[in-house]
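Continuing the batch. This is chain 6 of the set; chains 1 through 5 are on the previous pages. Same settings as before, nothing changed between runs. Recording input and output for traceability.
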Amino acid sequence: MFVRADLRLADLRGCDLSGADLRHARLEGALASDLTIWPNGFDIDAASLVIAEDPGAEPDVLLPAAAITRPIPPLLSA
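Output for chain 6:
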C-alpha cells in the first residue's frame, strides 16, 4: 500500500500510517504532525516533510449537502 505513491503536499497530520508501505513514496512538502504515526523504521528526516501543528478534530459537516448536489436529468435506458 502506497508503494511509489505521490503524496506530495498531502495533509497527513494525525494519520495512522503504521501499516503503510512507503517505499519510494513521494512525500515532499506533505504536512505531518506529532500525532502522525509512521511505519517502523521510517526515516522522517529524509522524507522532506513539513511538520505543522495538528488541525484538531474535523467539523461534523465539511460542506452542506445542498452545496454539492446539482439537478441531473434521469438516465434513460435504450
